[in-house]
Amino acid sequence: MSDRTPDWSGLLKWYPSRWRSRYGDEFTAMMEDSLDGRPASRRFRASIAWAGLRERGHETGLFGDSVPAGDRIRAASLLVLCTWSAFMVAGGNFAKVSENFDLVVPPRSHVLSAASYYTVFVGAVVGGLLVLAGAAIAIPAFARFLRSGGWPSVRGHILRAGAATVVAVAATTALVVLAHTLSPAQRNGELLYHPVVGYYLAAFVATMLLLLLTLALWTAAAVAVTRRLALAESVISAEAWLAVALAAVMILMTAATTVWWAATGSSAPWFVQGTLPGSPASAFDPNLVATLALMVLASAAASFGVVRMARAWKALRLG
Q1: What is the rounded average pLDDT of the residues 265-287?
Q2: What is d(CA 78, CA 92) in angstroms, rounded to the nearest whole number?
Q3: Could you give the CA distance from residue 85 to residue 146 in angstroms, rounded to a whole number?
């Protein structure tokens, strides 16, 4: 559809369904009057999309105070869960970048590098356990939800995530088998000298994309299910505390990653760059920049969720 005939139905999808049902026709008429036959610019479309996202945030309780405090706490907890999923992507990349660092970092920096590295590792384990604990305490409510006939409303989310998991596991298994045809050196920088380089790189990229898709689908499924559960106040409170702890873990892991980069980059910048040992190199690495940036953004979003929970909890206590 051209800019002169805007696809209002598509733009309206940025808004929640209840808002569309109530204001959709008025919104379309207002937009047509506002444009008065002029083409809708990209900036105009972006402003509509942003307004729709804000409306979704208000409806779910992520923004504003229009929904009950308990729903705002739940929305903030789910925000922290979503940021953890993004953080896992950054953490996986850090694990790849830092692989075997302890074999090459000079003794003068080894203690600090190792301490920060294992802080990230332990944080990942603790964060995973916090997420599992949050899922465990919601199981009774989920069982009641299924008994009351709620399965059809979340079936698509769970089946898509399950199917993606099966495909991702199969792809990962195939990648491991293919990786065993390569030496460790070839898997970490000398692929161009191996005859199956094209196959391995294609398999690696495809598998990583599948894993990312699977993580995103399970996160979406968890959000869809949790939003529909009837949770007792005690469960909401427990989930909130787990979310606060998870946000703290992300902040700690972000700081530890920064320390690891500084310590390793100052003593073995060639390792950070992935060049030959002892060669002149800079500690700057775009991959680590992207990794740390994602960690910082996820931690900031999680902190926003914690602040929202604190305000909602105060309102709940006062109410």
Answers
A1: 77
A2: 21
A3: 25
**What is the Cα–Cα distance from 318 to 61, expressed in whole angstroms?**
18
Q: Which two tokens stand for residue 308?
A: 């929202």
Question: Cβ distance 160 to 199 under 8 Å?
Answer: no
Indicate the range of 34-48, 111-125, 167-181, 186-200 predicted with least confidence.
186-200
Q: Of 297, 294, 272, 298, which is closest to residue 285 (Cα–Cα)?
A: 272
Domain ranges of the chain: 1-31+41-48, 70-138+232-319, 144-230
Return contacts of 165-171, CB within 8 angstroms, 24+ apart: 165/214, 165/218, 167/210, 167/214, 168/207, 168/210, 168/211, 168/213, 168/214, 171/203, 171/206, 171/207, 171/210
| Among 47, 41, 48, CA closest to 27 | 48
Q: How many CB atoms lie within 10 A of CB 15?
A: 23
Phi, psi (deg, nearest 5) at residue 253: -65, -35
pLDDT in tens, 4-41: 445 666 778 888 888 888 888 888 888 877 777 777 78
Residue (of 317, 315, 308, 244) closest to 58 by Cα position: 308
Residue 228, CA atoms < 13 Å, CB-side half-sphere = 20
Q: How high does pLDDT run on average in the chain?
A: 86
